[in-house]
């Protein structure tokens, strides 16, 4: 289920974005980008609706997915 990011408190959104960014644990870019810049990039993606906040009822967890992946997930759960 897609949850509008605006419904989250700023602390919850910040924590979710930071967890999303650091989930892989490694940055393979040529230049290391500070976490604060990455957080702003994800916030901008949320504002542009490129990525969305998703609540998984089965695992009772929240994550960030691309809009396309979230829509496919919702279609699969509806069938």
Shape verdict: globular
Largest β sheet strand count, sense and barrel closure: 3 strands, antiparallel
Uncertain stretches: none
> Which structural class is indicated by helix and strand composition?
alpha+beta
Cα-atom radius of gyration? 13 Å
Helical amount: 40-55%
* H and E order: EHHEEH
Q: Count of DSSP helices?
A: 3
Overall mean confidence score, pLDDT: 90
Distance between the termini: 14 Å
Bin the strand percentage.
Answer: 15-25%
The strand line-up of the biggest sheet is 1-2-3
Write down how many β-strands occur, each being a DSSP E stretch of 2 or more residues: 3
Secondary structure: elements and pairs:
Layout: E1 2-3, H1 10-22, H2 35-47, E2 51-56, E3 61-66, H3 67-78
Helix pairs in contact: 1-2
């Amino acid at each position: 289920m897609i949850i509008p990011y605006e419904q989250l408190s700023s602390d919850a959104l910040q924590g979710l974005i930071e967890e999303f960014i650091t989930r892989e644990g490694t940055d393979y870019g040529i230049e290391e980008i500070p976490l604060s810049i990455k957080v702003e990039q994800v916030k901008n993606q949320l504002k542009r609706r490129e990525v969305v906040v998703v609540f998984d009822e089965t695992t009772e967890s929240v994550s960030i997915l691309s809009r396309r992946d979230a829509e496919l997930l919702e279609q699969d759960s509806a069938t």
